[in-house]
């Protein structure tokens, strides 16, 4: 084995670092441009800062903050029944969103729905889900399936 290859295998993998800065009001990591000079130091993005200046309470801007000391559960650790309940929550929320907006949730609306479902699932089942790639994929898959079912119900003559 060459010395370079040996050295590469022995080196530890680096932890992925979040880009940008963390906003303590909305809880998101945002680009540096989304923070004013004072906002950097205070960890408050421009949009949250302007909302606070217009008289809104920071608690009104933010959905309820997640408890700090609670342990999150990964999606793949859920049992069959727990996944069925989650699927029902997703179907219900996506159906409601579709009927109100006639749009597929994307970007910010997708993230908001996902946070809402995680919060609702925690309240109803007492399980705080970890917002990871697996949960996102599961949510996307069932979101598309739900919207397709709704469209088929609206236009039954378009089938086969």
Description:
This protein is mainly α and 160 residues long. It folds into two domains: 18-61, no CATH class; 75-158, no CATH class. The chain has seven helices and two strands. The protein has helices at residues 3-10, 37-42, 46-53, 58-61, 80-101, 108-125, 133-154, and strands at residues 21-22, 29-30. The chain has a two-stranded antiparallel sheet with strand order 1-2. Helix 5 packs across helix 6 and helix 5 packs across helix 7. The chain is globular, with a radius of gyration of 21 Å. The mean pLDDT is 81.
Largest sheet: 2 strands, antiparallel
The overall average pLDDT, rounded, is 81
What is the general shape? globular
Number of strands: 2
Topology:
Layout lengths: L2 H8 L10 E2 L6 E2 L6 H6 L3 H8 L4 H4 L18 H22 L6 H18 L7 H22 L6
Antiparallel strand pairs: 1-2
Entry keywords:
single chain; 160 residues; mainly alpha; 2 domains; 7 helices
């Amino acid at each position: 084995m060459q010395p370079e290859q040996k050295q590469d295998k022995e080196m530890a993998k680096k932890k992925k670092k979040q880009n940008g800065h963390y906003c303590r009001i909305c809880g998101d990591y945002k680009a540096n441009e989304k923070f004013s000079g004072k906002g950097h130091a205070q960890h408050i993005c421009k949009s949250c800062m302007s909302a606070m200046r217009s008289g809104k309470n920071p608690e009104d801007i933010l959905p309820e903050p997640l408890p700090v000391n609670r342990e999150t559960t990964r999606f793949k650790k859920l049992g069959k029944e727990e996944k069925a309940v989650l699927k029902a929550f997703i179907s219900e929320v996506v159906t409601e969103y579709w009927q109100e907006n006639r749009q597929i949730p994307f970007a910010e609306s997708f993230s908001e729905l996902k946070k809402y479902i995680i919060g609702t699932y925690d309240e109803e089942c007492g399980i705080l889900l970890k917002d990871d790639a697996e949960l996102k994929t599961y949510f996307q898959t069932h979101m598309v399936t739900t919207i397709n079912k709704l469209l088929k119900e609206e236009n039954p003559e378009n089938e086969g």
